[in-house]
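re: that chain from earlier
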Amino acid sequence: MSKRLVLVAGNIGAGKTSLTERLGTRLGWLTAFESVSDNPYLPDFYADMKAWSFHLQVFFLGHRAEQHRELANHPKSTISDRSIYEDAYIFARALHHMGNLDERDYLAYRRLFDLVVNSLPSPDLLIYLKCSVPTLMARIRDRGREMESSISADYLSLLESFYDEWMQTFDLCPVLTIASDDLDFVHQPRHLDIVVERIQDKLAGKEVITF
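^ sequence. v structure.
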């Protein structure tokens, strides 16, 4: 198989990192993972979201664009557990919706996002992990990350609605949607086999239904 760039997208707790780790190991692909702790605006953002949302999102945009280009140019096939597209279509939009990113800053950010993204190579496949909010909440609670302790079901529902709208219009590459509520790589090893088969079919352009 020729070199591929695959991105994994989905709500907080959908299973992106777990899937990315296993696919990287199984397929021998280079893996890249979302990192928010290296954003120097994060402490200021949590102290005053309205004042620092724009700065936070611009930093993420530059960081993810750089990572996207590096992965696209790497000689090996690569997979990342977050896409640059989610920054604008999901998270910046949520900040704007909740009043933490005002109209002027939001429009300026979106113009910058469009300029940056239009200069990037398109991925070969986007894997979208779709998961119900109760399952997301349970997973977030179980993994016990302090920075996620204030995430509410209402916030996850808002993000999920934005994901649904984004998926209806995304056309940069093929999309493989996986319902991840019952995805269990530990107790159901066959689940990973099925996912790998579907990824390989998608990348090969196969759309076969068997009965």
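The helical segments are 16-27, 42-47, 49-73, 84-97, 103-117, 133-143, 153-169, 190-203.
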